[in-house]
Write a structure and sequence with these properties.
By secondary structure, the protein is α/β, with parallel strands linked by helices. The chain folds into two domains: about 150 residues, Rossmann fold (3-Layer(aba) Sandwich), CATH 3.40.50; about 130 residues, Rossmann fold. It is about 45% helix and about 20% strand. Helix 10 links the parallel strand 8 and strand 9. Helix 3 packs across helix 12. The longest helix is centred in the first third of the chain and has 21 residues.
């Protein structure tokens, strides 16, 4: 009978242990953080996702990560659905790189109303739209205007007063696109260089290429094209080559993606800016983690956390 009793006790202990292994108590307490990005066709956001996943792997006992991104830069409807899905999954926090500075605000408001912490990275949500909803959403990211001004100032050194340039802007409804255009304009104005036009390439290679080709046809005396991101800069480089103007029309970009590095090395691109894609997501996640741990309400989160942006040229390491 003693043997049988021990067997029963052992079997019961194994069953309990098995249940604990299958569903650890601590896993139920781990917060789930959703990272919702813009287009994963853009190398910048793939780098951001890689950085976030590496951080979660190193802190696997602290939180779970759900990372997602839209297929193209302008699909705001798909991004809104991703936020709604994250809310339905009962995540603790959403770290968002919004495709549109205004259109995402109602979805953010709905998430915050459910008690979900929302942190804004990369592209700042519209201040007036947030105020209208009585929302405080911390922005973790660089000063895009200052970063673009650094790039523009470097370009200006190779131009002279009176030269003509064109700006290929990102999605025009996004705060970071607007700020980068302003930064480029600041630098050009200070150097007496004429901006003949600003047109949207929607952050994408093909659209950047099409817009650049049109600008080069319309203004055959252009000396440079300033692209709002490196994806568009890739398209601009191809347009400059197709127009037979390689070496005659300077190209600059923004983001320092891997694909731009050989072009910096051989002079097809003069300069770009690095705003550390991988770190941005991590800074946003860490802010969300702290808020969850301290049970800090959304309204008491900091308004802004500045991150670095630096000029990158052929000589940069």
């Amino acid at each position: 009978m003693q043997f049988t009793r021990r067997s029963v006790q052992t079997a019961a202990a194994i069953a309990v242990l098995g249940g604990m292994l299958a569903s650890p108590v601590w896993a139920q307490d781990k917060p789930k953080i959703a990272l919702v990005m813009k287009s994963l066709a853009n190398e910048f956001f793939r780098t951001m996702e890689d950085g976030a996943k590496a951080h979660q792997k190193a802190h696997a006992s602290e939180y779970m990560l759900v990372a997602n991104g839209i297929k193209n830069e302008t699909d705001t409807a798909a991004q809104i659905k991703m936020i709604e899905q994250a809310v339905a999954q009962k995540v603790s926090a959403i770290v968002l790189a919004p495709a549109d500075s205004k259109a995402l605000v109602p979805a953010v408001k709905a998430a915050v109303d459910k008690g979900i912490i929302v942190v804004n990275i990369d592209n700042r949500l519209d201040g007036d739209a947030l105020k209208e909803k009585n929302l405080t959403v911390p922005f973790v990211g660089p000063d895009n205007r200052a970063g673009a001004r650094l790039v523009g100032e470097h370009l200006a050194k190779s131009l002279k007063s009176g030269d003509k340039v064109g700006i290929i802007e990102g999605v025009s409804t996004t705060f970071n696109a607007q700020q980068r255009t302003l930064g480029y304009k600041d630098a050009m104005q200070a150097a007496g260089i004429t901006v003949v036009g600003v047109q949207s390439g929607q952050w994408e290679i093909e659209k950047g290429n099409t817009v650049a080709a049109g600008m080069l046809r319309e203004h055959p005396d252009l000396k440079a094209l300033l692209a709002g991101n490196d994806s568009m800069a890739l398209g601009v480089v191809a347009a400059v080559k197709a127009a037979g103007k390689a070496g005659k029309v300077q190209v600059v970009g923004y983001d320092n993606i891997g694909a731009i590095k050989p072009m910096l090395a051989d002079g097809r691109v003069l300069a770009t800016a690095d705003q550390y894609a991988a770190k941005q997501a991590v800074f946003g996640i860490e802010l969300a983690q702290k808020a969850i741990a301290a049970k800090t309400p959304q309204s008491q989160l900091p308004a802004e956390v500045k991150t670095d942006v630096v000029l990158v040229t052929k000589g940069s390491k």
